[in-house]
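Query structure, 739 tokens:
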């Protein structure tokens, strides 16, 4: 198998024209040449094909009179010539983002892995567990500016893979060979993203924003800081009007569970976000999927208008209606990974007639006809279907359509160094991101904060949850006095606080992050911002609620549970100082637990997996947090877990806050060591504690806790938080950039 990994070469200036093969070039970027006559529409020259052409009411090459009459009719209809040459491209090499980009691809060969045997058995036998299946086989083609190009084919024909190769996206795990060119320019995947836009099949947006807010947000990041706020708003107004979104611009987009705008409006919103910077190339992946005929026509009409404005529009499409199909200028048909047809959309029926598959009923949708021919029919064997497809693809290769495409793509790769330097467009001068990192963080923080405010129900539910939990616990431990028989109550309520601060915040955090992940990937692929900018902005916006809710919880628990007079009398620190430290520990614990949620969401990328994984990590840390088992008795092989348990550091900080300064507890003497017998399992530890029962630090030592290390514990909590968030942002970056 011959081929190279996808690279981009420079194009030559060729005298050859893309004739009827590529349809009408009605965009403003193409001029008819007076020096070179257009190549006539290709027809097969065999006698059989001539007969088929006559039977289809298409005569052989017309006479001069007929030609003049036809030309006069075309002039009356104001249809431009179908001739085209590279010299007619109105592109400015000094401006890499100027319109007029011609995309050429040659000998694209793609293989995808298929698992054929067990990974374990393959490792033992030292064999690879995968075999490769060919999905694209030596595919070549051209997409011209000013035209709407459709890529069609049955399921599994390779149309989406071809689009991915052209965009150089979603190729993970594939073996890709061949060459893709853009306007005589050596270009890589990063440069392709700079000069093109991509409308994906699934529309991913933040449902809490309105249509207008979404476009304004995209404008702030896509257009950059060289434009004033007024200029950005003017562009937003123009795009809203152009996409027909004026009536719904102040409507929330909605989500899967809260419907708002229609799917057609959502698809047009996707186009609006992508064309803000007027990119020269637009790729679309099945933009009409899931839409009815009326909405599909509206969406494709938008694509047609963009093409007429000078863009190179390439789109995969599935089962278009006749009205939608009529809007296409150029058509590429894929079958079994090969090109079955590449030429003008309005001549595809003529090609299939010459191949022996005429459209008997002229009222049938042409798209339905050739899709039926290319698809495997019921009762047909795989060999029969393969033979029919092979005959059609070979017919295309030997036809004038295939020969013209083949010759053009072959000659396109022969370029001199002089021509390369003359037409070179410096894409490296284009910044991948139009805005600074600081501006990205600010915009993303503002968007995330607005989404938080737009969800009062979620905030109210969380507030209700916090208050109910706090009031319930406060009622259980209501005004507990500090005596020898209530020490266990104090220890229990402190550990309960640590547990609540974890489970009340870790899972909501996972849900929010995993739901936003598709939006992050789409916006990153569109060069809107860095993943780290999103992470920081989202963290800053969520910090507000993760500070307020722990404070409310702490106020209720502290003043319902503890007797302030007992705390003042038992130790040297006032109860208000203890309250301040109590709030601080709960806040740090909530921050650490949200960090666990961020890390789990970014590493797993899936809500179901993350929610199953978190308990596996958290429960061992909870068990070795200092309450359920005396840390002096932990087996040696599990002892390392207590040093990474954030439960332990938060619990130890609470114990330091309440017991490190206590020198006497009422009723706790050497004669009354009931509590000591209950909790001190180790005889030596129990003896040491009984020597000074009622002394807070000794109680802590008996539980393997260090007195007077409050701020060290806070430092450990903050350190764990920092490490977890660093892991989260790295995992997010890897997950987003490698998709």
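Result returned for the query:
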């Amino acid at each position: 198998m011959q081929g190279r990994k996808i690279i981009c070469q420079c194009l030559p200036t060729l005298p050859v024209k893309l004739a009827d093969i590529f349809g009408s070039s009605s965009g403003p970027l193409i001029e008819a040449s007076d020096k070179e006559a257009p190549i006539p529409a290709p027809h097969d020259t065999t006698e059989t094909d001539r007969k088929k052409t006559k039977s289809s009411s298409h005569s052989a090459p017309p006479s001069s009179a007929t030609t003049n009459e036809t030309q006069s009719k075309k002039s009356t209809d104001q249809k431009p010539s179908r001739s085209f040459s590279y010299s007619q491209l109105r592109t400015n090499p000094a401006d890499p983002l100027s319109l007029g980009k011609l995309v050429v691809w040659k000998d694209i060969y793609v293989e995808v892995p298929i698992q054929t045997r067990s990974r374990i058995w393959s490792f033992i036998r030292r064999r690879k567990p995968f075999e490769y299946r060919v999905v694209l086989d030596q595919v070549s083609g051209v997409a011209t500016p000013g035209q709407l190009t459709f890529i069609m084919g049955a399921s599994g024909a390779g149309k989406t893979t071809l689009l991915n190769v052209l965009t150089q996206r979603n190729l993970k795990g594939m073996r890709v060979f061949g060459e893709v060119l853009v306007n005589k320019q050596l270009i890589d995947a990063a440069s392709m993203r700079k000069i093109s836009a991509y409308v994906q099949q699934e529309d991913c947006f933040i449902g809490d924003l309105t249509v207008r807010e979404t476009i304004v947000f995209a404008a702030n990041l896509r257009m950059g800081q060289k434009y004033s706020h007024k200029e950005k708003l003017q562009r937003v107004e123009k795009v809203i009007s152009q996409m027909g979104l004026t009536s719904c611009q102040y409507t929330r987009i909605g989500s899967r569970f809260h419907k708002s705008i229609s799917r057609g409006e959502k698809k047009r919103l996707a186009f609006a976000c992508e064309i803000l910077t007027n990119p020269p190339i637009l790729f679309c992946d099945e933009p009409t999927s899931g839409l009815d005929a009326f909405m599909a026509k509206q969406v494709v009409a938008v694509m047609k208008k963009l093409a007429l404005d000078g863009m190179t529009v390439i789109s995969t499409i599935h089962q278009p209606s006749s009205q939608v199909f009529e809007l296409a200028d150029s058509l590429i048909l894929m079958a079994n990974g090969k090109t079955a047809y590449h030429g003008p959309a309005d001549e595809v029926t003529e090609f299939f007639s010459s191949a022996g598959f005429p459209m008997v009923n002229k009222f049938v949708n042409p798209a339905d006809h050739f899709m039926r021919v290319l698809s495997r029919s019921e009762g047909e064997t795989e060999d029969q279907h393969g033979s029919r497809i092979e005959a059609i693809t070979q017919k295309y290769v030997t036809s004038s359509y295939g020969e013209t495409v083949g010759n053009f793509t072959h000659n396109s790769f022969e370029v001199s160094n002089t021509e390369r330097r003359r037409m070179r467009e410096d894409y490296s001068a284009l910044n991948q991101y139009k805005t600074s990192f600081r501006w990205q963080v600010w915009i993303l923080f503002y968007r995330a904060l607005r989404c938080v405010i737009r969800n009062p129900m979620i905030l109210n539910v969380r507030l209700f949850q916090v208050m109910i939990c706090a009031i319930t616990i406060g009622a259980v431990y209501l005004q507990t006095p500090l005596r020898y028989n209530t020490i266990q109550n104090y220890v229990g309520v402190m550990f309960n606080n640590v547990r609540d601060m974890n489970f009340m915040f870790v899972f909501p955090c996972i849900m929010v992050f995993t739901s936003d992940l598709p939006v992050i990937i789409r916006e990153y692929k569109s060069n809107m911002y860095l993943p780290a900018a999103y992470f920081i902005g989202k963290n800053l916006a969520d910090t507000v609620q993760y500070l307020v809710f722990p404070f409310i919880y702490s106020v209720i628990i502290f003043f319902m549970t503890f007797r302030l007079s007992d705390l003042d009398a038992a130790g040297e620190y006032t109860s208000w100082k203890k309250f301040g430290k109590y709030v601080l520990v709960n806040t740090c614990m909530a921050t650490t637990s949200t960090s666990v949620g961020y890390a789990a969401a970014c590493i797993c990328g899936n809500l179901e997996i993350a929610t199953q994984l978190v308990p596996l990590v958290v429960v061992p840390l909870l068990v070795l947090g200092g309450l359920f088992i005396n840390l002096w008795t932990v087996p040696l092989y599990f002892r390392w877990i207590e040093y990474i348990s954030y439960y332990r550091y938060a619990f130890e900080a609470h114990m330091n806050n309440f017991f490190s300064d206590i020198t006497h507890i009422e009723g706790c003497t050497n004669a009354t060591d009931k509590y000591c017998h209950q909790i001190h399992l180790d005889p030596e530890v129990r003896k040491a504690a009984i020597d000074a029962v009622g002394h807070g630090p000794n109680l802590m030592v008996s539980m393997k806790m260090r007195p007077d290390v409050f701020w060290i514990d806070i430092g450990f909590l903050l350190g764990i938080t920092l490490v977890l968030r660093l892991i989260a942002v790295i995992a997010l970056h890897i997950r987003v950039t490698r998709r």
